[in-house]
Amino acid sequence: MPSMMTTEKFDGTITTADQARKMCVIGNRMLANDRVLDAFGHVTVRNPERPDTFFISWATSPAFVTLDDLQLCDFDGNILSDDKRRPYGERILHARIFKARPDVNAVCHGHPSSLIPFFCTDTPLRPLTAGGALFFEGVPLLKEWDPESGVHIATIAAGDSLAEALGNGRAALIRSHGMVTVGDCVQILCTVSNSLVGTAATQYTVLQLGAEPFYLSAGEAEKAVETSLGAIGIERSWNYKVKHIKEIFPDIKDLFD
Q1: Burial class of residue 197, CB neighbours in 10 A (0-12, 13-18, 19+)
Q2: Which of 19, 46, 7, 42 lies closest to 183, judged by CA?
Q3: 185: which of 53, 168, 210, 220 is 20 to 30 A away, CA to CA?
Q4: 8 Å CB contact between 74 and 86
Q5: Helix, strand, or coil here: 46?
Q6: DSSP letters spanning 150-214
Q7: 57: which strand partners?
Q8: Burial degree of 132 (CB within 10 A; 0-12, 13-18, 19+)
């Protein structure tokens, strides 16, 4: 009997700068509300009208981002306006990933606490659940980068090292620092980001039992990814989260119209 799970793909394509700006605000608010981001971290969205640029907030906390906070940035980290507000120092992280990955339209960088055991050690993340299947092929850990950048990804060379470590994957970890996740739209970025955080929390908890966990097989992971990133899975998750952030952040309700 054939599987009853749908394989219809989710399409989050946007075509205007106005849509990209709205999704940038929504992505920051949503991942802040999900505790993927806290006072630090950021979500960025590629500008479909000028694909060699992207939208990023000035250096404020993601839970506060509005349309008025957004700046336009190029792939060398230059802010393309006379906006005098201090930009994020790690905007170059996003810039170099967008440059290296034309398929990526949304990027998140944060420092979730559940990932600390995995970006502070060589312990690999392995999938135990459907959400973890998104990372079946592993999550690379960037260990060394431009020393002039310090612990942050704040130079072009450091950004290029991270983009290289990420490769064609959905996520990468940065030693003693945090993570980066990517997606072809904000909706998928949010699912990938939450799944990464959840995968780390689940694996750490299960390992405390001292028993060998039941890891997913390649076949199971492949089927789980089809469901998690499919139209039904993304739409159900997105609609659930949208309802809640409209209640929590009434000031951005108009962005969904």
Answers
A1: buried
A2: 46
A3: 220
A4: no
A5: strand
A6: TTS--SHHHHHHHHHHHTTSSEEEETTTEEEEEESSHHHHHHHHHHHHHHHHHHHHHHTT-SPP-
A7: 70
A8: buried
* Three-class DSSP category at 42: strand
Dihedral angle of Cα 128, 94, 162, 60, to the nearest 10 degrees: -80
Closest CA to 73 of 59, 181, 167, 37: 59
Cβ atoms of residues 228 and 131 within 8 Å: yes
What tokens appear for 192 in the block? 């990938």
Q: CB-based burial of residue 116 (10 Å sphere; 0-12 exposed, 13-18 middle, 19+ buried)?
A: middle
Q: Which of 24, 11, 7, 19 is nearest to 58 (CA)?
A: 24
Measuring CA to CA, which residue among 8, 30, 12 is closest to residue 184?
Answer: 12
pTM of the model: 0.95
- Structure tokens that stand for 196 in this block: 């990464």
DSSP state of 107: E
Amino acid at 118: F
Distance CA 187, CA 196 (A): 15
